[in-house]
Each structure stands twice: as structure tokens, then as C-alpha cells.
Amino acid sequence: MEKRVVFRSAWLPYALVAPQIAITIVFFFWPATQAVWYSFQLQDAFGLRSQFVGLQNFAALFKDSNYVDSFKVTALFSVLVAFFGIAISLLLATMADRVLRGAMAYKTLLIWPYAVAPAVAGVLWAFLFAPSIGIVTYVLKGWGVDWNWILKGDQAMVLVVVASVWKQISYNFLFFLAGLQSIPRSLIEAAAIDGATPFRRFWTIVFPLLSPTTFFLLVVNIVYAFFDTFGVIDATTQGGPGQSTNILVYKVYHDGVKAADLGGSSAQSVILMFIVILLTVVQFRFVERKVQY
Amino acid sequence: MVENRPWLTFFSHAVLILGVLMVAFPLYVTFIASTLTLEQVMQVPMQLTPGDQLVQNYTQVLTGGSTKGSKAAASSMLVNSLVMALAIPLGKIAISIIASFAIVYFRFPLRMFFFWMIFVTLMLPVEVRIIPTFKVIADLGMLNTYAGLTIPLIASATATFLFRQFFMTVPDELAEAARVDGAGPMRFFWDVLMPLSKTTMAALFVIQFIYGWNQYLWPLLITTDESMYTTVIGIKRMIVGSDAANEWNLIMATAILAMLPPALVVMLMQKWFVKGLVETEK
């Protein structure tokens, strides 16, 4: 796709792209190059000298059981966030697509959490689940559950998953609703005339036709769980207890900013960069052309 | 609806109401906590009806912050958040609309190279280049400044794509007619393209307003001065212990203040919001 009619000027186009390109170079390319450079360096304890060590930082990372654990934690976390986020919002969107009365009101009341910052979502749920004063904790104690996410790793994971899913439902809901509304009514009516129950119609017609939207949301939710949930983790568990909620992004931040391990943190950055590139390629190659709104 | 099934309709409403309640529950508890005294919040179980401390708690956070954690006043934090939430979308729209104008309406050497350069930034989120970016900001003397908070975040591949995509749908006849009438490129840009792009700009603005308001990692890295805290950072800094040590009533009042502006934008500008969301992700 190219424009047939174009303007001519020797300098104007360069002046127009200059601000965007300048910011891109100074704040994106230069730091990213530095991250790659540092990842091959080893600094002494005072940060005064550094020496080229090749792939040693990477080798050290994969020997470090904490890092391997962080990979597993991230995988578990993103699968849980993506699964529950998608399942709950698909249910809500299917119902919202069915009802005639109040559909607009439901939509408005379901989409506002999109506006909540991940860190604030974390604080809200941390308060509800607070070990001594939380309201949900109180209810759980009544049911005989000993709730203390500050000490128990699996409960900390539940907390961050709940907060992250709660924030993401609105986003998934909107995309599912748009997807559902683009399914031709005639298909569903034909199936109804043939006597298919609503339940059966959903699984044999609606769900397969929604699969491009579902796949798109799967990728988006995984990206969300990998990167955007930093605020949820930092405002609640800070990776703890132990390593139980220490996702990759949080570990990069912690090792680099708090523990000042420049080489190790940069090597982790480079690995994360590869993961982002992979996810972006997947998104553009396999998703873009098939998704319909 | 295909056929009338009263029970299924009833079930649908029940599920939706449950969903709305589940989504609203944390907000409700937050609001209640922000109207209570600290002693009332600490009682187990906390009461679920509003108390009478609303005015007092909100005045306290707006003027003085918490007493145990950060003492930054919420009023100044709200101003900082607002600066981010306005400067980022406006800056983003400005630089991406001119960049995509150049890429679509001119032929020049390195055109595709610039396009790909912008594209690649999609793959370099702040999270993967934390420390080197911090160093760049420190070297430029931009720590604790509005410039440091906003400028690095205004480069955006998605906005450039969105405008490029929109410009491609603008009929060639418009540019042709402008040229026949003797209009230069900038005249065409101001008088034809800008008015046509209004809805795209509005949609982008709503999405980026929320993006700017909710920034977390970036201000966390480059603001150390309490007067530069944004609201979201301020809430985090008010949490000193993990549980009973915090002044939850004040934290929750600040949380309400942090959620209110973007939530209002989403609900009141729903049309632009949905358009922006669906289009920026395409």
C-alpha cells in the first residue's frame, strides 16, 4: 500500500520524523544497546572497573536456581492470569451479548477497572486479603482457612493472580463482546431451528468462531502477565515470600536496582528482550490477519 | 436473542449482576475504609457502612499525606499525575502524527528505515532496559523533572501505526485537489488531514491519558523527591509495613483519588475509549 499522490521536499520529511526518531534513539536504542553491552561485562564490587566476560553472565544465570525458579513462577503466573482472565470475561461477555435489557449499564459497570493502575489494584486486594484485618481473610477464617499470604507462597500467588485478573477482565470483556457481536445471527438462528440448545450452540458455533479473538487475547494476556503486572507485584508481595512470586520482570528490577548487580540484571534484560521479540512476532504473524472486530 | 427462554435470561442477569458485584466489591470496601477512623478500620471485621470521617480523611491526604509513610500531599501528587496524563498523550499525538505524515505523504531516502526503527520500539518496553535507561536520564540531568517523567514515554510505535493506517484510507483525490489549488504539504496537513484525524486523535487521547496517569515503574525509577511523586507512587510509599502498621484509611482515600479521574474518563468517554482500545491493538 503506497500513496499515489505525494509531496516533494528535500528537507521537510526529515524534519517531520526527527522528533520521533531522536527520542527513539536516545531513550530506546541507546539504552537497549547498553543493556546488551553490560550483559557481556563483569563489574567489580565498587563498580569502578569492568571486564569483558563473554557469555559468562548468561551461563551464571542458568546455573542459578533462583533464576530458573523465576522462569517457572512466571510461567505459572501467566498461565493462571490468562486462563482465569479469559474464562471469566468470556462468560460475562456471552451473557451480556444475550440480554436485551440493561446491556449498556452492565457494560459500563464492567469496564471501569481498566482505568485502575496495576499497583492500585494490588493495594486494594492486599487490603482485602490482609492477614490480620482483611475482610476476605475474616470470611476465609470463618471457613477454616488459615490465610496469611505474607508467609505462604501459594497464597501470595493467589493474591497477585486475583488482583491481576480483576484488572484485566474489562479489557478481555470488551474484545469478546465485539467478537460476539460480529458473529452472523443467521448461523445461530439456523442452529436453533434445528433444535440445538443454547449450550450446544455456544460450543459448536460461537466458540469456534470466536477462536481468533481468544487467541489474540491469549497473547495479549501473556504479555500483560509478563510485563504490566510489575506494579501488582511491587505494591504487594515484592516477589516474596521467598521467591514464590518473583516474576522475571520483578527480578530484573530487583537485581539491577536494589541489588546493583549490573551484569546479571542486564543479561536478564537481554533474555526478556528476546521473549518480547518472540511474542511480538507471534502476535503479528499469526494474529493480525485472522482477528476480526 | 434467538428464542425466548425465561430461565436462561434470568440466569444471564444473575451472572452479570454477580460479575458487576465482584468487580465493584474492592472499590466499595476501599470507599468505606476511606470514611472511617483508623481504629474502625482495624476492627475485625471492618464495618461495611460508611463512617463519618470522609471530609477529615480526604482533607488530611490532600494537604498533608500520611503520618507514618510518605508525607507528600495528595494535591501535589494529583498535579504530577495530571501533568503525566496530559503531556504523554499530547506529546505522543504530536510527534507521531507528523512522523506518519512524512512516511505516508513523502518519498525520501531512508523512509522505510525510519519506519522500521519506530516499529522496533514495540519490542523494547521500559521493563527490559531498566538500568541503562535510568543512566541515560541521570546523565541528562532529568531525574526528578517533568521532562524526565514524560519525554521518554512519548515515542510510540502504536500511535504512529494508527495514524499511518488512517492516512492510507484518506482518498488520494484530496491531496491531488490540494496540490492543484497550489497548497504546500504543511497547508494540506493543517487544513485537510488534521480536521479529518479528529476522531482518531480523541480515541488515542483517552487511551493514552489512562496510560500516562497509571505509569508506575517509570516514576518509581526516576523520582526520589517527594514533591515529584505521582499519585500511584504516593500510595505505594504510604505503605510502610505489610499489615496493621499502615494508616489504611488514608491509603484508601488516596487510592480513591487515584482511581477517580481515569475511571471517569473511561465511563464518560466510553465511545472514544472503546474505539481507541480496539484500534490501538490492531
Explain what you see:
The complex is a heterodimer of chains A (293) and B (282). Chain A is mainly alpha-helical. Chain A is built from twelve helices and two strands. Chain A has a two-stranded antiparallel ribbon with strand order 1-2. The radius of gyration of chain A is 24 Å and the shape is globular. The model of chain B has no long low-confidence stretch (mean pLDDT 87). Chain B starts with 5 loop residues before the first helix and ends with a helix. Chain B has one domain: MetI-like (MetI-like fold), CATH 1.10.3720. Chain B is an all-alpha fold and 282 residues long.
Q: For the residues shown, what is the average pLDDT of chain A?
A: 86
Provide the CATH topology of chain B.
MetI-like fold
The radius of gyration of chain A is 24 Å
Strand runs of chain B, count: 0
List the helices and strands and how they pair.
The complex is a heterodimer of chains A (293) and B (282).
Chain A: H1 12-38, E1 41-43, E2 50-52, H2 56-63, H3 65-98, H4 103-111, H5 118-128, H6 135-142, H7 153-181, H8 185-193, H9 198-228, H10 230-235, H11 248-258, H12 262-287
Chain B: H1 6-33, H2 38-42, H3 54-64, H4 74-105, H5 111-120, H6 130-139, H7 146-150, H8 157-169, H9 172-180, H10 185-196, H11 198-213, H12 217-222, H13 231-238, H14 248-268, H15 270-280
Question: What characteristics describe this protein?
Answer:
heterodimer; A: 293 residues; mainly alpha; MetI-like fold; 12 helices; B: 282 residues; 15 helices; 70% helix; globular
Q: Can I get a quick summary?
A:
The complex is a heterodimer of chains A (293) and B (282). Chain A has 293 residues and is mostly helical.
